[in-house]
Structure formats: structure tokens, C-alpha cells
Amino acid sequence: MAYTTINKSTAHFNTKLYTGNGGTQNITGVGFKPDWVWIKSRGGVGSHNLFDAVRGVQKRIFTDLTSAEQTSATYLTAFGSDGFSLGNNGDVNGNNQTTVAWNWKSNGAGSSNTNGSLASTVSVNSTARFSIVKYLGNGNPATIGHGLGVVPKMIILKNLNTSDSWYVYHQGMGANAYMHINTTNGALSPSTNQFQATTPTNSVFYVGNAEGTGGNGRNMIAYCFADVKGYSKFGKYIGNGNADGTFVYTGFKPSWIMIKRTDAANQWIILNNKMSLYNNNTGDELYADSNAVQNSFTDGGADFLSNGFKLRGTNASVNVNNGSYIYMAFGQSIVGTNNIPATAR
């Protein structure tokens, strides 16, 4: 059995569904004070809006766009003890729009980290192995302290000052490859100018001289993740092109999964257990690279099982025969130290 030190996964990550009112409102019920909030309208066309405590409230970036950081009092206006407050922006609080917010706990505005050749500001949740890292590039290859204390398995990074793609490192692709979360492109290589084609260590990750990861005078934000037994997993799998699809073992019941094909162009698929309450997860995905409304697979989604997930169908974005995929997943342990088992839906 997969025991874990995290007995309550929703104390570190939680999904919150709400309906916008077109004005201002306080969203509660998250279960903790979030430090990273990712908001997407489900019922209307609108960008993915990302906010974090290190950059500060009222500042948003978008996974589906290359845009620089934007600041306004009409976006997320405060991080509360049990949620967050919203202004009247239609992307986050459109009138009568069904909306989803994915929330992660870190450690507030963060503190200085000097482990790398460039100083960074790091907000870290050491239990859940998640950190938010901000640093200033100098146009040269550099190392950046991430604060996790273990080797990151995935890093999602954005230049805040100029229009530029996102850059993604994932251990499932190896150190010499990278991807853009704002596009459908498959894995790109080499990553010399982006991540120095070098695997991160337990204290730093590597950036090159690319404008999007180390541009001179450019503020950067990075979201760093590592595996936690029974709570999070950042892995890879091969599709089988069958409705009785590939089973992916995570060691916990997933509550949120993002999947991306690496050997061809396909969308970044996001599934979670709040948008769909039952297996199969057909009809309930969003795309990190698109502003589209909540959509459905035409040939199958995925089952969330007690110890992983199983693809259902032959959609090329998740399960084409011999297709290569990476994923990030969060969820609930099979058995925590309190001996309470998780069950399939």
C-alpha cells in the first residue's frame, strides 16, 4: 500500500467551482489560504488566469497566451484565509459564468534564496514539494535556487516583462528537451539556451541565455514541482490506441491531471474530479493552451482509479498507439498515516 505523510491532500491542493456575478465577490471553501490560483471560465471563452503570492495580487499571466504580466484591480484582488476575492473581470468573474479555480498552497510572499548564481525569491511548501520562484535574468547561463530540497520533476516558467512563450521542463522528456504550455507543439530540442540541457539538482535549476528563461533584466516566475508519495506524480506513459486504454500508476487516486503528448502536436489536456463527478471523465476537460470553453472527448476520457488513472478511448491527445505522453497529477493517497483508504469513484 502507498502510505504517505500527507493525510489530507486538500490541505495543499484543491479545486473550487463557482459562478461569476459580474461584480465583485469572495470565493471561499478552498480549505486553506492559496498561494497559487489558476482560474478558467468553463462556460465562456476566456483565457487561463494565473495569480500567485510571490508576484502579488492583481497580477495575472495566461497559460494560453505569450502576453507579459498584466496588473489590474479587476482581477484577483486578495488571497483570503479560505479562498480569494475577485473583481469584475469577465475572465475570472463573468456574470453567470461557471468557473473553475485550481488552488495550491505554498508559503506566502516567499523569502530570499541564494543557492544559485542568481538570487531568487522562493515561496515553498516543503511538505507538498511545490515552490514558486521569482528571479531576474542577466542574459547569461545561470543557476536558480528553487527551495524544494529535492530534485524538481517539472518546472513551468514564464518571462513576465515581454511577450514570450512559456517554457516547460519535465523529467519525462529528459534534460535536453522542453515544451511551451501555450502551444500544442510537441517536445523541442536541444534545450541548451533554455535549461542548459542540464537536469536540476536538489537545490537549483539551470537556465540558459534565452529571452524566455534568462533574458537580461527580465523578471521570471517559475512553478516547481517534485513527486510526493501518495500525493503528486510527474511521469510519462506510452499510449496503446485502444478504448481499453493505458493504465498509469500514480500510487494515489487522482483529483487533477494534466496530460501532454510529446512526440506530436496535441493540446494540453486538463481533467479533474470536480468538473466530472463520475468515471469516465468524458465531457469535462479544459486545455491549458486554449481559451476554449469546457469541452469533451469524442472517443473517451479517463477513469480516476484508487491507484492511478486509465485512459478510455483513442483520442490522439491522450492515447494514440505508441504515442509518448507526459503528465502531472495531484490526488489523494491510497492509505495515509491515519490508515484511511482512498477508493475509486
At a glance:
This protein has 345 residues and is mostly beta strands.
Essential attributes:
single chain; 345 residues; mainly beta; 3 domains; 27 strands
Work out the helix count.
Answer: 4
User: Which parts are unreliable, with pLDDT below 50 for 5 consecutive residues or more?
Assistant: none
Kindly, what is the distance between the CA atoms of the first and last residues, rounded to a whole number of angstroms?
18 Å
Q: Tell me roughly what share of residues is in helical segments.
A: under 10%
> Looking across the biggest beta sheet, what order are the strands in?
11-12-13-18-15-16
Structural class call reads mainly beta
- From the spread of the alpha carbons, the general shape counts as globular
Radius of gyration using CA atoms only: 19 Å
Largest sheet: 6 strands, antiparallel
Instruction: Return the domain count.
Output: 3
Number of strands: 27
Tell me the strand percentage band: 35-45%
Mean pLDDT: 92
